[in-house]
Structures are given as structure tokens and as C-alpha cells.
Write a structure and sequence with these properties.
This protein is mainly α and 184 residues long. Helix content is 73%, strand content 3%. It has a two-stranded antiparallel ribbon.
């Protein structure tokens, strides 16, 4: 390949990468959109069974906007796993739980040093994803073999040097989860 062709291809690739970046920024989930879905999730997490479907749907819609956002994926996975509590059909319970856990595993796999920064909710993304996964893993039945990993993720969050910069509400939730986990 001659040098001019190589140079032209590099410029085309760079332009394409910039356009993808601009398109991604234009379709990013706003904090207001996130907070709407998050409020449904918190209601569901507090025991409002009616909010579970709303939370799962809201985070699924947001995830379509940003399919590689691990925070959105973690919340979508946790809400999907919660849907297992809304049905009596055993095969649906398992499907919801397995689908949700798979999304959480994928969200954890997507984490990179870039997610040490705040992604959503004023919290470093890595902490939010690990905490949501830990809570979910600790809540599923023992036969799903997630308790040990949930405890490890919660321990990682507690030991993280990023925790002091997290909002007070997040730190309070982490402390409460740690207290609950140590009691059980």
C-alpha cells in the first residue's frame, strides 16, 4: 500500500471515530432520564412490587440509547432479576433471574478504568455497578451460587479509594448493605 493511500485511510478512520463519538454524545442518557428510572428502581427495591416492571422497562429503554453503559446495564439487570419475584411460574422466575444476572455479569465485564469517573447518579461508575451487582447477588437464592461473589463485590466497594468521593446517600446505602450482609 502506498503512503498516500495509507494516510488517507488513517484520516478516514479518524473522521469515522470522531463521528461515532459525536453521535454517542448526542444520544447520551441525561441525568433527568436516569433519575426517572432510578426512582422506579428505588421504589421497587423498597418493596413496591408495582415499580419493578416500571424500573425494568425504564432501564431497558435507556440501555437501548447507550448499550455499552455498564451503569445502565447493571440497573437493567438488577430490575430484570427482581421480576422473578413477580411471577408464580417457575420457568419465568428462572428466566428473569438468569437474564438479570447475565446482564449484571456483562456490566461487570464492561468496567474499565474510565468508569472510575462519575457515570450517572453522582457516583463513580465502577462503584455503582459493583454495588448494584453485589446487592443482587446477595439477594438471589443460594442455589444460584452468587453469594460469595456478591460479598467480594461489596468488600471491593467498601475498600475502594473512590468511595469517599461518592455522594453521602450512596455511602449510606453501602454501609447498610454491609451491615445486613454481615448479619446474615
Amino acid at each position: 500500500m502506498n503512503p498516500n493511500t495509507l494516510s488517507r485511510r488513517i484520516r478516514q478512520f479518524a473522521l469515522a471515530a470522531c463521528l461515532v463519538g459525536v453521535a454517542s454524545a448526542a444520544t447520551a442518557v441525561t441525568e433527568a432520564q436516569f433519575q426517572g428510572a432510578f426512582s422506579h428502581f428505588m421504589q421497587a427495591n423498597a418493596g413496591d412490587a408495582g415499580a419493578i416492571d416500571r424500573a425494568a422497562e425504564a432501564f431497558t429503554v435507556l440501555l437501548k440509547t447507550e448499550p455499552v453503559n455498564p451503569v445502565l446495564m447493571a440497573y437493567a439487570g438488577a430490575a430484570t432479576a427482581m421480576k422473578a419475584t413477580t411471577t408464580w411460574l417457575p420457568w419465568k422466575k428462572m428466566a428473569y433471574a438468569e437474564d438479570g444476572l447475565a446482564q449484571l455479569d456483562k456490566a461487570l465485564a464492561l468496567l474499565s478504568p474510565d468508569h472510575n469517573a462519575t457515570v450517572q447518579n453522582g457516583t463513580p461508575g465502577v462503584l455503582e455497578v459493583k454495588f448494584v451487582a453485589a446487592n443482587t447477588f446477595l439477594a438471589v437464592p443460594g442455589f444460584m451460587n452468587r453469594r460469595e461473589r456478591g460479598a467480594k463485590l461489596l468488600s471491593d466497594v467498601l475498600a475502594s479509594p473512590l468511595l469517599p468521593q461518592a455522594p453521602a446517600a450512596f455511602k449510606a446505602h453501602v454501609k447498610a448493605a454491609a451491615t445486613k450482609a454481615s448479619a446474615s
